[in-house]
Every structure is written in structure tokens, then in C-alpha cells.
Amino acid sequence: MTPDWRGEAARGPHADLVVHRPQGLYCPPGDFYIDPWRPVDRAVITHAHADHARRGHGAYLATAISEGVLRARLGDIRLQGVAYGELVDINGVRVSLHPAGHVLGSAQVRIEHRGQVWVASGDYFVQGADESGADTNSTCAAFEPVRCDCFITESTFGLPIYRWPTAAAVFANVNSWWQANAQAGRASLLLGYSFGKAQRLLAGVDASIGPLLVHSAVEPLNRAYRAAGVALPATRLVSELTDKTELRRALVVAPPAVHGSVWARGLGELSDGFASGWMQLRGGRRRQGVDRGFVLSDHADWPGLQRAIVATGASRVIVTHGYEAVMVRWLQQQGLEAGSFQTEYASDGADNGDGGDAAEAVQPVISA
Ligand SMILES: [Zn+2]
Ligand SMILES: [Zn+2]
């Protein structure tokens, strides 16, 4: 056995399977990182959002279904793609990836070593306050609870104020807004991150209302979804439009970075809306300067996080990526051992691959 030169807890049978290091979350017995934010030799990637899948690692392991998006974004990388549930041995550690319900190919990482099981969630979406079972993300495999001793959970929306309406209710609002705009002869510009949110919007709206158009940042990802077998309605690029009068009845899906741009002004008279979990906050819509805010997130809300954590059966929970302190306190009240890791992942607002979107993150500052 290698000496404990890293200064971490001794590698006994109950040593931690994931620890925090400057480069990212690290598995000492397996000698690999999970979604590292600095270059490392071996990275297990939960999903292809830019803050989780970065350039410069020696080797990548991810779901085969996310391969197309990863390669498109990161170029010529050394990537091993695996199926959900497929076991991979990394230095004697059993590693497998399980659906996280967040975006195409998103996964939780299950790590088993010497009888201990840890799961690192990455970003995940589960249905929230509505427990009917109807509220899933139709564009990717649904979150699968994985039994474990220790669960490392994200907590992007880990505050009791976050309770998502059902997707059906949100899409009813989007459709009636689009319908009203089409009747008034103006375009509907719907802003959402180009990887994940845009496809969820396209899959959820009523395509019979009018033409569905997209920004050029969105269409390559639509192609990746379609190639993976996800049903999306037909879309056209705004730039391909020959009859500009079609814009007046169209729903245009584009990344938030286009808001207020020359490109957006080229759409003519329009109403704009923004789809994000942050829209639940009073002032979220105003802060973004859009006409409408639609509460639609690819992350779990407060009841969803709680339900997902309990379903793992974990006696220990490590919180990352959001409002750690509030979630840690709640977990401790449930009698669980809880702590947090400081990570360098973005908030929902910047959780994308569009670069420029990061400046438009609308994560609120909450004082209480
Ligand atoms: Zn993400
Ligand atoms: Zn994230």
C-alpha cells in the first residue's frame, strides 16, 4: 500500500472514499477525480455541463450517451464511455454510473471499495413537491436512487423556498404566453441554457401553436439529443428563415446570453421569457429584464433533494454546490452525519457551455 503522503485520513477499511482536494473531489483508493476543476490524470465526469466537464484531463470516463456532447465541447479527449450500471474497475475500486435525471447522459457516480459504498450525485433532478410521478424530465433518463453509506449531494436549490410547480403547469403557461404573442403578431423569445434546458423546453411546448425556431448555439445539442434517441419536435435555425413573417407566430429558443443583443433585435417585435429555477424568486424576472419568468429547473427543489437523500439510505451526507449550511442543518436534525465540501461548480445560471452565459447568472444573495 502506498504511504499516506497526501496527508489524508489513513486508508483503513473505513477510510473516506471521496475527499476534497484543490483539484476537485478525489477518490484515494481509486486514484481518480470526479468532475475536477483543475487538470488531473483521470477524471470521472458526471455530465457535460461546462463547470463539470473541463478541458485538460489525461483520461475521461463518462456515460456513452454523453460522449457526443463531451467530444463536441472538449475536442479530441481520451474518453471511455460506459453504459448506465456498467461496472468499471479502477485500481480495485468498483465504479459505475447511474441516471441523475439532469441532462442527456447525466450520471451519479457509485464507488464501492472494501464493502463501503459512496455515491457522488453530480447535478440531479427529481420530481419536487408534486409526488404524482408525472413530473419527470422527458429528455433524459430519470434519477435512480442508489443505496449507499455516504451520499455526496448537490444543493443548488437547497432552501425551503424552492418548490417547483409541475412541468405540466409551467408548460401550460408557456403555451398560453406563446399563443397570445402569436395572436398579437409578435415573436416569443424563450431563453434557456443551450444544453439541457433548451431541449426540455422544445420537448415540452405545444408545437402546433406555430413555427419552432432556435439559435445556432442550440441546434448542435438538439442533434446530439436526437442522435441519442430523444424525441424533439422539428426545429429550424432563425438564420435559415426565408419568410420573416413566420417570426410573428414563432417560438424562438435561445441561450440567455442573446438577451438584448443585436441578434435578438433582429427578431422584430417580441415578448421574452426566461426559464430557470431562479425565476421562483420575487425579482428574478425583473433582474433579468424579461417580460416573463418560467420556473423550470434541471435541479431538484427542496422537497426533491430531501426525498432523494432519504431514498439513498445513507447515514452520512456531504453537501456541495449550493446552500450547504441550510441543508447540513436539516440533515443533522434528521439524525444524519452531515458535512460539506466547497466545490467550484457554477450556480444554475452559469451551468451551461455557452461561456458568455456565466455573466448572466442570476443566483440571488439571500441574507436570512
Ligand atoms: Zn449541470
Ligand atoms: Zn452543476
Describe what this molecule looks like in 3D.
The protein has 368 residues and is of the alpha/beta class. The chain has eight helices and 19 strands. The model is unreliable at 1-10 and 349-368 (pLDDT under 50). One zinc ion binds next to loops.
- Order of strands across the widest beta sheet? 7-8-9-10-11-18-19
Question: What proportion of the residues is helical, as a percent range?
Answer: 10-25%
Q: What is the general shape? A: globular
What is the helix tally? 8
Q: Please state the structural category.
A: alpha/beta
**Distance separating the two termini:** 48 Å
List each distinct ligand once.
zinc ion
User: Which H/E pattern describes the elements?
Assistant: EEEEEHEEEEEEHEHEHEEHEHEHEHE
What's the mean pLDDT score? 89
The residue ranges in which pLDDT falls below 50 over 5 or more consecutive positions are 1-10, 349-368
Radius of gyration: 21 Å
Give the total of beta strands: 19
Main beta-sheet strand count, sense and barrel state: 7 strands, mixed
Strand proportion: 15-25%
